Amino acid sequence: MLISVQLLRALAAWLVVGHHVMQLFFNFEAHNALEDLLVEKGGAGVDVFFVISGLVIFLASADKALTPWRFMLMRLARIAPAYWFYTLLLALLVMAMPSMFPDVQLELSHVLLSMLFIPAQNPAGYGVYPLLDVGWTLNFEMLFYCLFAVALLVREAYRLWVVAVLLYLVCYVIGPFFDLADGFYRNDIVLEFLMGVVIGMLYRRGLCRARLWLALLGIVAALAAIYQGADVPRALEWGVPSAVLVISCVALEPYFHGSRFIKMLGDCSYSVYLLHVLVLCAGRWAIEHRGVGPYTMVPVCIVVIALGAFFSYHVLEKGTHRRIKHWFGLDESMPFSRQRH
């Protein structure tokens, strides 16, 4: 895994955490410039994730004789166990302490659909979200994995075009015609996966190189574009700047190469993303029922999320992934850190 991408993955995950801190602790009421930034732009971390996902999936499958079935098994082995664990953990916590999760309602059918990555209306009435609401991004991920699996049937040079056509058909033709998942897939955010695939193709051809000043200029320009915003579709407002940010960071890879600390931050980012809402809901409960100040609770939650994610990665993610690979005889030549969400 590119260390520069690991750093960007970690930053994106914590940006989403900051956005949800403002939602759950402050009801999106900002009191300073940093809080305002997290409220308005924190969601852009998801766009960075999607671009990175397209990049990683392309690189992880390049020059490998992967069948669609094997590819999907590898993807499921990587992302499903931790997601299922935190989904079921949330369900148990809701039953044990419903006051801690007042926005969550349990319905067996919805829990099952959530576990199967099938978009459905949340019984709490706030839209098409799974039980663990951050899992909405994984529903898009799973769609992309399925379509990319089909693209593996053609030569590598044509995969981008096959995935692009399939995304268009599913999201803008078949989906609207059959009203799949209440229009969930009709979202231009799916184009950000294709941006990542393009970056992967450029990287494979040695075209993601630039002088230090140019790469830094690209990062500054991307961040400025995200900050400024525009009244355009999300794929343009945040997706294109996220792609510029990713490719600029990749160009800086020689400066990050070999950093174990950055690699560790990136490794833990998936668990950070999955467990942070549970921790923040517990923090909100402490604020509302125990009189703890929100600014006192923020660093406490950050520490709990960081430590929880570290152990979650090493015990839950890494451990279950190795067991599943052994059970199904999946490729052991691909390092775990390269098979990232």
In summary, what is this structure?
The chain is mostly helical and 341 residues long. It has one domain (6-338). 71% of the residues lie in helices and 0% in strands.
Report on this model:
The protein has 341 residues and is mainly α. Helices cover 71% and strands 0% of the residues. The chain has one domain (6-338). It is built from 14 helices and no strands. The termini are close together. Residues 332-341 have low confidence and may be disordered.
Question: What is the helical fraction, as a range of percent?
Answer: over 70%
Question: What portion of residues belong to β-strands?
Answer: under 5%
Low-confidence stretches: 332-341
Distance between the termini: 11 Å
H/E series, N to C?
HHHHHHHHHHHHHH
The outline comes out as globular
The domain count comes to: 1
- How many strands, what sense, and barrel or not for the largest sheet? none
Mean pLDDT: 92
Number of strands: 0
Tally of helical runs: 14
Q: What does the radius of gyration come to?
A: 20 Å
What is the element layout, followed by pairings?
Blueprint: H1 3-26, H2 33-41, H3 44-61, H4 68-96, H5 108-115, H6 136-151, H7 159-178, H8 191-204, H9 212-228, H10 234-251, H11 253-256, H12 260-267, H13 269-290, H14 294-328
Helix pairs in contact: 1-2, 1-3, 1-12, 1-13, 3-6, 3-8, 3-10, 4-6, 4-13, 4-14, 6-7, 7-8, 8-10, 9-10, 13-14
List keywords for this structure.
Acyltransferase_3, disordered C terminus, membrane, Acyl_transf_3_dom, 341 residues, single chain, transferase, globular, mainly alpha, transmembrane
